[in-house]
Amino acid sequence: MSKRKAKDAHLPIGECINQVHQILRKRFCHQQLPDKPEGVEAQHKHLAELLKRTAVHGESNSVLIVGPRGSGKTMLLRSVLRELSQETEVQKNLLQVHLNGLLQTDDRIALKEITRQLQLENVVGDRVFGSFAENLTFLLDALKKGDRSSSRPVLFVLDEFDLFACHKNQTLLYNLFDVAQSAQAPVAVVGLTCRLDVLELLEKRVKSRFSHRQIHLLSKLTFPQYLERVRDQLSLPDDFLDGKFAQEWNAAVTTLCEDRSAEEVLQRHFNSSTDFRSLHTLLMLCLSRVSVARPSITPADLLDASRLCLADANANMLHGLSILELCLIIAMKHLNDVYEGEPFNLQMVHNEFKKFLQRKSNSMYNFEQPVIMKAFEHLQQLELIRPADGASAKTQREFQLMRLMLDHGQIMEALQKYPQCPTDVKQWAMSAFA
Amino acid sequence: MKYFTRLRVRRIYEWRGAALGFNRKLQTYEYGSLSIRVEGLPHSTVISAGQHILIEGDDDDNPYVARVVRLFADESGAQKKAVVQWYVRVSEVPPGKLKLLGRNPHPQEVFFYEGRSCEDEVNAESVLRPVQVRHLDAAAPFPVSEDGDIFYVKLSWDSRTFRPVDPSLLDASRPPCRSLPLSPPSSPPAAAPAPGGPARRALPTPDPAVMRGAMATPASSRKPGAEAESLHSLTKLSASKCLSAKRRSATCRTPGVRKKLQLSSPDDPAALRDDVLQQLLEAELEKGRRSAAAASPSEPLRITHSLTPLRRTSRTPGRHDDFPLTPCSVRRRESQSETDSPPAGDDLSSPQLESSSSRRRVALRRNHATFRETTSTKRKEVQTGTEPVLEVLDEEEEKNCALRIPRRQSALKVSSRIRKQLNLLDDRLSSDEDEEEEEFVPSRKELQSDEEEDDEGDEEEDEELKVKKSRRSSSSAASRTKQKTSARTPRKAGPKTPRTHHHATPSIPNRAQPARRPGNILEEARARLHVSAVPESLPCREQEFQDIYSFVESKVLDGTGGCMYVSGVPGTGKTATVQEVMRCLQHAAEQDEIPPFVFIQINGMKMTDPHQAYAQILQKLTGQKATADHAAALLEKRFSHPAPRKETTVLLVDELDLLWTRKQNVMYNLFDWPTRRHARLVVLAIANTMDLPERILINRVASRLGLTRMSFQPYSFKQLQQIVTSRLNKLKAFEDDALQIVSRKVAALSGDARRCLDICRRATEICERSAAQLVGMSHVMQALDEMFSSPYIAAIRSASTQEQLFLRAVIAEFRRLGLEEATFQQVLVQHQALCRVEGLQPVGVSEGLAACRRLGACRLLLLEPSRLGVLQRVRLNVSQDDVLFALKAD
């Protein structure tokens, strides 16, 4: 590595690393669109043709893009729109309205947003933002006035489409689909959702008006393709400032992908999830370790990043507990074992703990009841335990029924890593009679 | 001015004198006159045949206007009836039809009603009091009057078009004993409402204030009383009046003589007014002959010009000498072009001219504003006018001065009225001007929008422009607003909140390039198969069409009301059929086969709240805007009060079930109104469920809905095939087998025609991509697959390894528990065991939870809220068999 640094004459190494960070971060964090759709060519063509017909012929359409989270629904739509915007005929005609179910939580807000994005609010001053009813009639009138051949087509993009189906009476969806199915201003309604059962959410009248076109984005990625994608994501473009550095970087990436341990890590990630977002998180963690001193990604980096990604949050939290709190958790675990997951209360936990102290009192004190209570409350605040369903707040705190929110595996794992854990506590955790 | 309604006073109606005769055929007694008096007051009003009267209607402020033709009582003598000839007020003409008028209606204008849809027999006890109706010639201006009790009739209205009133018609229908207001110039001076002055004064008034008002009103206008007054004040006037006094004495038909006559016999004011008119006519005729070479027989048109300046001048008689001379020529040109127009004043009612005039109105309004600013200049032309005009002018001045001296305060109000009239007049005048007048158009924008708008949009355009112009010429806007409001409710003291934005509906902007036409056969087929394409006919719904048609037709013919409930699953053509029926009926009404009716539709899904239904109905019926509560009250009044001249209203209520409220009062009202005697309302309610009345309606609503029901069955495969074939209309784009499989498949699933059309449309797209000429089996199968295949199995197959393992763990845990539900913790144990079997590293809790949540987001699993962590319960949203099938094939 030091050799490589010495050879670098064109640009200082710091500058190169800076550039690498900039380029790759843009890819991982800003969701930069890839140049070409990968693996979704058919869907891309279908959507592009559909929107083009709306823009050019004034044909009304409605379509749903369905796929799991991170499968590239928005990316598909954005790349189609980017492609369409390069054609002047489309670009000049198409009006766009983007709505998101998480932002427009009811029809009233959605209607206001539509009016705003269509820039209709200036036409009659403030009156538009009168009552909800006025707003609706206003918009419907506006759409009704148009016709297929003369008005500009409107593209409605409904992100998180399933949330719109929760609106009262589904008024907005009914009206949008009704416009799409009647001789009014041409509209294209594109819904994006990750729910496969979205059609069942639609009311029967709304469902009848929907054209039932669905574009499913289901990745059929194999592991070699996944590896290929990792390489693409990490590689530097050809037009990188310092050609020599880029060559070396790309070669390092290739060797990384062929490395046995790195491949294992990636395989594990591939097994867990195939979407872009989790991959980007992993690669981002690797990238952040790249510096002037370590100008390439090594398999060890990947391993560390993977460990960070897959780390168990709750088990990590156990490391920060006091010995007393840990003992209480262990007592709860034993209670869970004995009573097969039935809820417990503070008194039971304290008794279990006292039994342990009686047997092995050499290393632990008997704590006062208030101290035990304090520790118990701290565990509740950390949400490691939570009140059982239906337990009323009226009962005394000592007798309130609780459930443990941890799995046995998590507890044992945490005990292994706990710094300076007394041996008898460890043994107690292994067996209730230790 | 208030009307006396039954609510406030009890009026007593009695026959005056004995019966004139007994009609054996009809078993009725004929009477000559009826006297009305108010309980507790000595005065009584006499109504006799031939007189014009006000009849109680659904609007207290706007009672109906009519003329009594005959008075009679039934055999027992208990029921007093009257046969009347109706006049229609401006406010009663549908707002959409007012455009046909081609000008702004005068608030006091009425139209001679020639339609047939109204019964002409009314209860005599609904008569309020006598009123004056005067005939004006089509081109004559409306006289300025403060009095709301004089109505002017120019045109007749047969619920479709305006026509000039044929004076002979008025003559023919005039009963022998009484005379109508005369129609100039041929008819002799006749005594119109005989008891005009005295009767009014003797009108029974319970309220002294109202009484005073009634007394004062005639005095404020040029009524007998006022004219008497004017004579008294004559002495105060300038020397110019002496001239007219001289003139008066010169001929026996001069106003002076008239006045004397009036003083002696105040019974005939209307007749004398007509004489004045006639006099003016003659004078104007002379002027016309002199000024315009091309004198046509259309003298009435001419009057317009001469009268207008007169009215104007009358306001400011003292400033005669300081007028610039220029505008005179403009006027002259107008008058010439006026002469060229067709005679007898029917130019206003001829449709082509109307449309062009309304189109030009916008541009010309600015023109009027200029005219108004130089009102004084207009006066000049009077000066340049001929001698007789001057004389008459002076005559007019005299009267007006006399009026103004005692009440200067009212001058402002009066002048604003005059302005309004001028505006009206100019509107009408300019409608006949040449295109070159367009140069008065104030801004390019207005011109543009004017050109863009077609005739139908004109009304709205006017409204919008009004807003824009309001800053520039506020007076114009104000006066127009006033007209607008007064057209609706002429009695309101002043314009309330001006409804300037009323019709302003912006539209989606127009596209830069025109939409491309369909290029090849497949594109053409796709355009025809789109659900929005309106087919020429609706195949497979002939029987339903016939049933609905005959139902509505019979109701319209009988003038009764009724309800019909139409049900059927979505996409079976309910709304389309009803709309088709209404289109046919409207066509029939245009062909005069059935009486005209109003059709409005509302949709439960297109309103935000069930109560908005009232507001929408009212708006579509009358153009009025009101809150839901107010609209409900107005509609209630409209449908429950006897209104003999009402057209049948057909109301289509789509998606009825959404109008459900807890108390169901919206539905109750909708179905209750048709049962009212006077409502003439036909309600067609559409919903999906067949047994909606039984299921969600409470008894009193279900009972009112009645048993006239119709249910649309889902289409059978043959019908679906026929629908597609008829839409394609011999366009060969599909293989027959392909069509059949689509229709069979859809018929088996839902029978929804929309679905069938959508699949066919998708099939053409697939076909286009595969570069085939004809849509075949394979294309259709692919389209069907896309639309009907369940995505679950594909989704499971494309899930990641850990997700698939998790699903297997879920099933394993279910089997172990024998339940369809397990906590995540339990499943995780299974999952980790499966991982070991598969030779994978066991998953941690976080990793397992992530996989679980991803499956939950797709709704392959149903999860509890994630804050429960490992304790959340997991259920499958697909059948276990599906999951196993999907995973086994892997």
UniProtKB/TrEMBL annotation, chain A:
This is Origin recognition complex subunit 4. GO terms for molecular function: ATP binding; DNA replication origin binding. SMART domains: AAA (SM00382). Belongs to the ORC4 family. The keyword Heme does not apply. InterPro entries: AAA+_ATPase, AAA_16, ORC4, ORC4_C, P-loop_NTPase. PANTHER family: ORIGIN RECOGNITION COMPLEX SUBUNIT 4 (PTHR12087:SF0). GO terms for cellular component: cytoplasm; nuclear origin of replication recognition complex. It holds the Pfam family ORC4_C. Its main location: nucleus. Component of the origin recognition complex (ORC) that binds origins of replication. Residues 59-220 form the AAA+ ATPase domain. GO terms for biological process: cilium assembly; DNA replication initiation. Keywords: ATP-binding, DNA replication, DNA-binding, Nucleotide-binding, Nucleus. It comes from Xiphophorus maculatus (Southern platyfish).
UniProtKB/TrEMBL annotation, chain B:
Residues 45-168 form the BAH domain. Component of the origin recognition complex (ORC) that binds origins of replication. DNA-binding is ATP-dependent, however specific DNA sequences that define origins of replication have not been identified so far. ORC is required to assemble the pre-replication complex necessary to initiate DNA replication. Belongs to the ORC1 family. Residues 182-196 have a biased composition (Pro residues). One of its GO terms (molecular function) is ATP binding. ORC is composed of six subunits. It comes from Xiphophorus maculatus (Southern platyfish). It comes from the Eukaryota. This is Origin recognition complex subunit 1. InterPro entries: AAA+_ATPase, AAA_lid_10, ATPase_AAA_core, BAH_dom, BAH_sf, Cdc6_C, ORC1/CDC6, P-loop_NTPase. Residues 172-181 have a biased composition (Low complexity). Keywords: ATP-binding, DNA replication, DNA-binding, Magnesium, Metal-binding, Nucleotide-binding, Nucleus, Phosphoprotein. Residues 245-261, 358-369, 481-504 have a biased composition (Basic residues). One of its GO terms (cellular component) is nuclear origin of replication recognition complex. Residues 449-464 have a biased composition (Acidic residues). One of its GO terms (biological process) is response to yeast. Pfam families: AAA, AAA_lid_10, BAH, WHD_Cdc6. Residues 168-232, 245-270, 288-387, 428-516 are annotated as: Disordered. It is found in: Nucleus.
